[in-house]
Amino acid sequence: MIETTLTINGQEHRLRADPRTTLLDALRNHLGLTGSKKGCDHGQCGACTVIADGRRINACLSLVCMMDGVEITTVEGLGEPGRLSPLQDAFVRHDGYQCGYCTPGQICSATAMLDEVRAGWPSVVTEDLEGGAALTTEEIGERMSGNLCRCAAYPNIVDAIRDVAGAKEAAE
Ligand code: FES
Ligand code: FES
Fold it and tell me: What pLDDT is attached to residue 166?
């Protein structure tokens, strides 16, 4: 057993777990935070995406014992009913989900992705490497390509992301 201290959604947790325990299993099975979903368990679907020290990661590919001192945000930490984050609200307004299984990962991923864009990080489809990326459908599709949706709610997911990105731009 290995002891790990990490902060999850602003609250410090000390966990004793088998060193093979993934962050995803620790969140779901040890802490009861079942918002992060297990789809493939192989890093291929993005359903388990959480934000670790500001960067999106696949929780199914991360061992919890490697997370000592790390700040994790899951979909539960972004907002809750009555206090939704802008992306959570936009997914509802744009009907960005059907079964909802991929939605927590999509929202965590998009939350960190918008910060990456604001920080000026290019993607492989960004033409102007100096000037920042316009969030076209192609740009959003590339940046969100690690998050699959079996229900193919993609058009509405893109609309929701674009809505929030536009609101952020307008506020700057
Ligand atoms: S469950 Fe982690 S990427 Fe699919
Ligand atoms: S809404 Fe069903 S998998 Fe995306």
Answer: 86
